[in-house]
Amino acid sequence: MLNRKEIEEIIPQRNPFLMIDEVEEYIPGESAIAYKYVKEDEWYFKGHFPGNPIMPGVLITESLAQTGAVAILGMKENKGKNALFGGIDKMKFKKMVVPGDTLKLEVKIIKRKGPIGVGEAIATVDGKVAAKGELTFAVVQ
């Protein structure tokens, strides 16, 4: 289990844009499972939407990307590098994510060639799919 401090040793994101709270497990270069504990006081709920807070789909996608980044940047040869979006494919949003939810984030690296790769990503709440799709990434300095 990695806490936020240990996550920050692997990926470069910081508050308020670090979108994962802990990593349950990861296999460098292969997969990662992380969690985002969605709290009432998240910065984005002030405007999305007042009186009806819903986590934006782009931030669910970012949470998945950061989970995948733990897997890919956890490799020794990628230490100190960054993983950028190269594409978002087949992303579907199936369930609203609201304050109090625990978002389970799972990413499996399904393709890799040099610095480019693809992760199969799925976010769930209480075992129900909130979002899923494929994330293409590029590892850069």
Question: Would you give an account of this structure?
Answer:
The protein is α+β, with helices and mostly antiparallel strands. The protein has a single domain, classed as Thiol Ester Dehydrase, Chain A (Roll). The chain is 16% helix and 43% strand. The protein is built from two helices and six strands, in the order H-E-E-H-E-E-E-E. Strands 1-2-4-5-6-3 form a six-stranded antiparallel β-sheet, with helices on one face. The longest helix has 17 residues. It is globular. It starts with a helix and ends with a strand. The relative contact order is 0.21. The model has no long low-confidence stretch (mean pLDDT 97).
What features would you highlight for this structure?
single chain; 141 residues
Radius of gyration: 14 Å
Proportion of beta-strand residues: 35-45%
- Tally of separate helices: 2
Major β-sheet profile: 6 strands, antiparallel
- Overall 3D shape: globular
Instruction: Specify the CATH class.
Output: Alpha Beta
Name the CATH architecture: Roll
CATH topology: Thiol Ester Dehydrase, Chain A
Query: Total number of β-strand segments?
Result: 6
**Count of separate structural domains:** 1
CATH homologous superfamily classification: Hotdog Thioesterase
Look at the structure and give the mean pLDDT: 97
Structural class: alpha+beta
Amino- and carboxy-terminal Cα gap: 27 Å
How much helix is in the residues?
10-25%
Uncertain regions spanning at least 5 consecutive residues: none
Order of helices and strands: HEEHEEEE
Strand order of the largest sheet: 1-2-4-5-6-3
